[in-house]
Amino acid sequence: MTDETQACRTLSGIPVDPVYGDGPLPGEFPYTRGVHPDMYRSRLWTMRMFAGFGTAEDTNTRFRELLRSGGTGLSTAFDMPTLMGRDSDHAWALGEVGRAGVAIDTVDDMEDLFADIDLGGVSTSMTINGPAAILLAMYVVVAEHGGVVRSRLSGTLQNDILKEYQAQKEYLFPPRPSVRLVTDVIRFTTAEMPRWNPVSVSGYHIREAGSTAAQELAFTLANGFAYVEAAAAAGLDVDSFAPRLSFFFNSHVDFFEEIGKFRAARRIWARWMRDRYGARDERSLKLRFHTQTAGVSLTAQQPEINIARVALQALAGVLGGTQSLHTDSHDEALALPSEDAARIALRTQQIIAHETGVTNVADPLGGSSYVEWMTDEMERRAEDVFAHLEDLGDGSILEGVYAGIDSGWFMGEIAESAYRFEREVDTGDRIVVGVNAFTEGDRAGSADLLRIGQDTEDLQRKRLAEVKQARDDAAVRTALDRVVTDAADPTVNLMPALIGAVDNRVTGGEIVEALEGVFGTYTETAVV
Amino acid sequence: MGTSEIDTPTGSGPPIRVVLAKLGLDGHDRGLKVVARMLRDAGMEVVYLGLRQTTGTIVTAVEQEDADVVGISMHNAGHLTLGPMIVRALVDADLEVPVVIGGVLPDVDLPELAAAGVAAVLGPGAPVDEVVATVRAAARGNGGR
Question: Is B100 inside any structural domain?
């Protein structure tokens, strides 16, 4: 962190206060201006770079490189088969193993992924939803084998299944049993992993799928309310788990709209948690969030100019008061980030943190007429959506969200916004630099892209075969039977059965197939 | 657009029929949905298969729908495996239907995809004119269907 003098003076030596303006100040209800009184003066955001590709060893090398370069948290990207609960040797996995993230089939892969990293000292985010509970079970087993008890583990499981039906489409089971898995994880971490965030309620994917900023805000917070209602229905006291709910937003290119969105998110959450859900603990009212710059805004044309886009989007996240940040690499419209590009992206955050001085003052834009108006406008638009969902759900946001998923309402709204944006770009009403204007200077070729070949898939299948060969088949069967039995009883928490299964080297795919036998599968009705 | 602008493979006759699908597990369907509407607005008939299709389901749809073009969307970096696979599956089924792939595809992969028989590739941010023209050219190259 910056030293005292630097933190309090401008580059020219002018002393500055931690905050300006009248109340409510940062750290005060409804937290519009931030969740901490002096924000980044006391603690910078976590620079958490999302990484994952190839085999567990490949990603482990990247993780250790990111920690050496000053990254302060880990964030794991899994490949499509892992995200979809399929083993690397499944027919559906063909061509996708290790390609867009790291392949994790068994606890052995998880062990390799975190080799030589102190799980008691680092915080780890895992971006996974359908099979989230299974991956959490693997993480716990790996940590405890390494001598770190689960209560010391710090990190975040995305585990936000509702937005999968709305936007990202990585669901496995129908919505209701999937939400039961989410609440099982909430119950488990609330009791045994006090430093763990069991759900990262995510607008990022809703936005990437094409929504507007206001839709991202509204759908995400509605999903958050839905989880609160589901956990309360499962018998949990709101203040027992709400302090550990976290959020994940996109930071797109419209600078002030984004800042208004982040500020509105905090205010809405605080008011709803207190007034609607009866939270008393101040920590339940504080919306903490991770931000990622908008992957969808990156252009394949003149990819190096994406560095500027990312810097501006990251700055919006910081001015909006984010708790952690991932900056996209400029080559991501072409392939997975190369190591050099990932380093530039991290350096971008470090420039904002250590050179620009924006960390000196909490919510430096608070009081700006435009920013305050935008914050109010975002809130108003979100409240309209909540009213619609309450209507759909006869007073329940959870039921309203289920109804909106079943009828394709969310998908239709998002597709409509995505199409409108494309039309605006096509007609030239909206300028995208390098795409429909200022197009000269695009250099052909894609020199140093990170490529994952078919050999990774072959290697991973071989490793999986070796693990299956070496394990105790009787123990596997017993562990899977317990998963099925526990799944069939909605009053039982599935986490212990899942931990037992992965510890006996049952694969993620085997567990998912067993659960499908109880929960069924889900196929969407496409809305185009 | 009005019916006078309806697109046909040969310039007259029935409109171009396009099967659109995501091949594999990847769920990023924003691009494919936008393309579906672009092609429909241009007067083509779109058969939208959507997510999690296999070569088998795509071949069946092409056969049943008498499609002129197959559009596959891929954002999973699996195109060098899955692209040639769908082309081969169509050939094996005696369906001479051109395959257009859209998505995040590095330029360096284009020659290999072309050699494997992929008719055309559309990258991120391809404008509507390019999308429509590419699909139309692919359909017209699809001799006299």
Answer: yes
- Are A395 and A281 in contact by the 8 Å Cβ rule? The answer is no
- Give this complex's ipTM: 0.83
Question: Hey, is the C-beta of A95 within 8 angstroms of any chain B C-beta?
Answer: yes
> Is A84 in CB contact (< 8 Å) with chain B?
yes
Mean pLDDT value across residues B101-127: 91
pLDDT band for position A441 (cuts 50, 70, 90) = confident
In a domain, B36, yes or no: yes
Residue B145 lies in a domain: no
Identify the domain containing residue B120 by its residue range. 16-140
Q: What is the pLDDT of residues A37-46, one digit of tens each?
A: 999 998 999 9
Number of folded domains that form chain B: 1
Q: How far apart are CA A424 and CA A121, in angstroms?
A: 47
Report whether CATH 3.20.20.240 matches the domain A29-427: yes
**pLDDT tens track for A291-302:** 999 999 999 999
Banded model confidence at residue B141, pLDDT cuts 50, 70, 90 = confident
Closest CA to A109 of A85, A139, A74, A80: A139
Asked if A300 lies within 8 A of B127 by C-beta distance, the reply is no
Q: CB–CB of B108 and A301 under 8 A?
A: no
* Cβ–Cβ gap A80/B54 under 8 Å: no
What is the model's pLDDT at position A5? 44
d(CA A345, CA A84): 28
Question: B127–A425: do the CB atoms touch at under 8 Å?
Answer: yes
User: Is residue B117 one of the residues assigned to a domain?
Assistant: yes
CATH code (residue B75): 3.40.50.280
What is the band of B8 on the pLDDT scale with cuts at 50, 70, 90?
low
The CA distance from B7 to A19, in Å, is: 62
B30-67: per-residue pLDDT in tens?
999 999 999 999 999 999 999 999 999 999 999 999 99
Answer yes or no: are the C-beta atoms of A96 and A89 closer than 8 Å: no
A446: nearest CB among B30, B80, B106: B106
Q: What are the chain B neighbours of A336 within 8 Å (beta carbons)?
A: 77
Is residue A157 a contact partner of residue A126, using CB atoms and an 8 Å limit?
A: yes
* Whole-angstrom distance, CA of residue A259 vs CA of residue A292: 13
Contacts of A446 in chain B (CB under 8 A): 106-108
Q: List chain A residues with CB under 8 Å of B127.
A: 425-426, 436
